[in-house]
Amino acid sequence: MALRKVLVLNGPNLNLLGTREPEIYGHDTLADIAARLAAQGNALGLDVECRQTNHEGVLVDWLHEARSSGVHAVLLNAGAYTHTSIALLDAIKATQLKVIEVHLSDPETREAFRHLSYVGMAAIDCVKGLGAKSYEVALERAALL
Ligand code: CA2
Predict the structure, then answer these.
(1) 120 — phi, psi (to 5°)?
(2) Quick one: which H or E segment has residue 77?
(3) CA 107 – CA 82 distance, rounded (Å)
(4) What mean pLDDT is predicted for residues 82-103?
(5) 25, 81, 118, 135: which one is catalytic?
(6) Is 135 in the active site?
(7) Which one of 77, 85, 116, 134 would you pick to mutate in the ligand 1 pocket, going by the greatest count of ligand atoms within 8 A of its CB?
(8) How far is the CA of 12 from the centre of ligand 1 (A)?
(9) Overall pTM > 0.85
(10) Using N-to-C axis directions, what is the helix angle for 133-143 and 30-44, rounded to 10°?
(11) What angle is formed at CA 77 by the lines to CA 123 and CA 25, rounded to 5 degrees?
(12) 115 carries an active-site annotation
């Protein structure tokens, strides 16, 4: 039987992980995180694919594609689009995907402009503030869905 697929979508500037602001985002690169998630996915019987884009519309397109390809769940760190994107909110609602919101930091303990999450208005769960481990906890939760 085919493995259930989990898509891990990352938004703007997350390609810079591990290069700047390690006190907020840690030392791991996105490639490090992707490699660990792939191994964890193997153990959980999940096919994990990680992607990153700096473009809002690409995230919307990937959510549409996830819906039509029958993805089991999406882990979504939309970066700053989390706090601005009604388009992402609409896409999550329209696709009815099981989306788990993920953040390395805890936006609610940071600047006020990070306290609002449009993604969170449609996501079924949120894991934040654990650094790279946020993704691993989110993947464990996705396996239980
Ligand atoms: O904590 C998170 O995961 C965030 O989604 C990260 C976003 C931020 O806008 C959200 O409020 C919370 C920013 C990602 C920027 O990534 C960088 C990586 C390395 C150096 C600088 C920025």
Answers:
(1) -65, -20
(2) strand 73-77
(3) 10
(4) 98
(5) 25
(6) no
(7) 77
(8) 8
(9) yes
(10) 30
(11) 135
(12) no
What percent of the chain is modeled with pLDDT above 90? 93
* Domain containing residue 104: 4-143
Q: Taking CB atoms and a 6 Å cutoff, what residues make up the pocket around ligand 1?
A: 13-14, 16-17, 19-21, 25, 77, 79-80, 82, 103-105, 107, 114
Closest Cα to atom 18, ligand 1: which residue? Answer: 17
Ligand 1 centroid distance, CA of 79 (Å): 5
Which protein residue's CA is at the shortest distance from atom 13 of ligand 1?
79
Structural domains counted in the chain: 1
Which atom of ligand 1 lies at the shortest distance from residue 105's CA?
1
The pair of three-digit structure tokens given for residue 128, joined into one six-digit string: 């934040």
**How much is the pLDDT for 82?**
98
Which tens digit of pLDDT belongs to each residue from 45-61? 999 999 999 999 999 99
Distance in Å from the first CA to the final CA of the chain: 18
pLDDT band at 64 (very low <50, low <70, confident <90, very high): very high
pLDDT digits (tens, 9 = 90+) for 18-55: 998 889 998 999 999 999 999 999 999 999 999 999 99
- Give the CATH number of the domain where residue 137 resides: 3.40.50.9100
